[in-house]
Structure formats: structure tokens, C-alpha cells
Amino acid sequence: MSVSGMKKQFHKASQLLNERLMGAEGTRLDEDFLKMEKTVAVMNVLLGELMSRTTELLQPNPAYRAKLSMLSTVSRIRGQARTVGYPQTEGMLGKCMLFYGQELGPASEFGGALTDVGGALQKVGQAKDVLDVGIKRTFIDPLQGLQQSEMKQIKYQLKKVNGQRLDFDYKKRRRGKVSTESVRLAWDKFMTSKELAEKSMFVLLDSDVDLIRPLAALIASLLDFHHNAQRMLLDLQSDLQARLTAASNKPALHFRSEKIPVGADPSSTVGFYYQLSAAAPRSSGEETSAITSSPDSFISNFADCKLLLNQPCCRAIFSFTSKRDDELDFSEGEVIILTGQVDGDWYEGTLGERSGLLPVSYVEVLVPLPLP
């Protein structure tokens, strides 16, 4: 810095101390300028807060955020273009469910349900990765660009305005020792810097379209993610309801162990599973004579149940014997396709090739009828 520059900085510091300590009054800026300056200061804080809170929304775990930041820094130092994604909680839970669903195997309805849920959650996690990328590109990056360009320039201009004002006030206070031409030049510089800052602030505050556009993009990305997630979860709910119906209609199995003769090899003796009749209630305790050595043969027909659940249907919780020709006979546990509702007490339905009325209180709705 030159000697004249050092003297100018000293004069500014002298004027600032004089105002702060001695109560000297400097040149007052107009109300409109001060109002814009205050609004710009709020926006500067707002932009930083928005970017920080949005990052917390997308990546809520601070430890993982710190780890990703460190890995990104190391990759840049090494000149690598490697990017590490944030581990989505939905994907982590889905991976856990998939693992144990496969461990339980296809013979387990619960294992199959775990596999279905795990796969759906992993898809939700992948959709969230897409959401992260989209929001960063359409919301965070534009705000960051605004903060690092326009806001940074305005901050520099306001600092220059304050410095020119201090220089002018110092020379005005020492009028007589400082030439009138020097005071006039200081005033011209002060007014020029003020006009430049005022114009930049006005352009920023008047650009509502550029400020609202990232907000609209944020909401569009969130809506797209939630629509996709809802579609995935609704499909999953349909599959789970089908599995639940299949598991409910599955014949009950009971275990009976054989008595091991003295001296016999225990490994050569197995237990037996007794199968209940499919039409009998699971709680009746009645056994049939059909015996099987493994429960694998009782895997329910999941595909058939899934086809039924793609349309309005219900499951009978009690058996019903018709008393009129237009009523439908059915047994407990049977799944009936719903075709309509007569009133609050009766449905219309189809079971196989038979159709008729069925009482509302005798069935449990699995897939409701569409609203009229």
C-alpha cells in the first residue's frame, strides 16, 4: 500500500473513532437506501440459512454429512472425480430386510413379505438420491450462485460506500486544512459509490422471478419424489395385503412328535404336521387325516390372491347360508369379488360362477369399492 493510501486509511479510522467515541455525526444516508441495505442484509442471512436447512432436510445425519464433505475434499486434492452418495435410511433398512427375507427363504410368507418391503424401500432410497441431485441442481446451486455473485458484489459496494463516506466526513470536518477541491472530489466519489450500490440492491430486490423460480423447482422436486414414493408404497401395500390374505387362508399346521423308542437314533425320528381343512376355522382345532412331513407343501397361492386384490373384494369372516334366491352362499375364509353395494347392510358380489347379495357384517373388505 502506498503512503497516500495509508494516510487515507488512517483518516477513515480517525473519523470512525470520532463518531463512535466522541459522538460526531457523519453524513446520513437517505431512508430508502437504509431500508434496502437492511433488506439485503436479511436476504444474505436468509440465503445461507436456506441452503443449510435444505441440506439438513436431504441429509439429516450430521456425522455422515461431515464424512462426505471430508471424502469430497480428499478426492479434489487427489484430482479424482469420485463422488460418494449419502446413505439413505430407507435404502439401509431395505437392504437389511432383503438379506433376512432371503435367509428365511421362499417357504416363509414372512420372508417373502420382507423381501417385497426391502425391495420397495431400496427403490424409495434410490428415488431420494435422485431428489438430492435434483434439489442441489435446481435450488441449492442457484442460491449459492446468487450469494457468491450478486450478494458478494453488493457487500463490497456497501463497504466502499462506507469508506467513501468516512473519507468525505473527515475532509469536511477539517475544512480549512483541506482544500475545497479535495472535499468536492471526496463527495463525488461518495455519491458515485452510493449510486452503484443503490442500483445493485434495487436490481436484486426487484428480481422476484429469479428468486421464486428456485422455490418452485424445490417444491416440484419434492412433489415428484413423494408421488413416486406413494406409487411404490401403494403397489407394496397391495402385495402385502395379498400376502396377508393368503396367510389368513392358509391351512393351520400342528406339530406332533413321535415317541422315541429306547435305544433308537433320535435323528431318524421326525415330527409330523397335521393339516386342517381349508374350509374349517383356524381356531376350531379339528384335525384331518392328511399328514405331511414338511410345511413346504402348504405355500399359499400368492399369485391368485394378488389377482383378486387388483379389484374390489372381501374375505368372509363367517359362513353364510342364503335364505332367498338372490342371496349368495359362502364359507368362512373365502374371498368374494365385490360388484356393488345395495345399502348399508348388503353388498353385491361374485364367488366363482355364482353371484348374489351378501351381508356387510359377515365379511371383511380387502379392497374397497370405488367411490360413486
TrEMBL record:
Transmembrane segments: none
GO cellular component: cytoplasm; glutamatergic synapse; presynapse
Alphabetized UniProt keyword annotations: SH3 domain
Domain SH3 residues, every copy: 309-368
Domain BAR: 18-249
GO BP terms: blood vessel lumenization; synaptic vesicle uncoating
Pfam families per the UniProt record, alphabetical: BAR (PF03114), SH3_9 (PF14604)
Family: Belongs to the endophilin family.
Record's protein name: SH3-domain GRB2-like 3b
Biological classification of the source: Eukaryota, Metazoa, Chordata, Craniata, Vertebrata
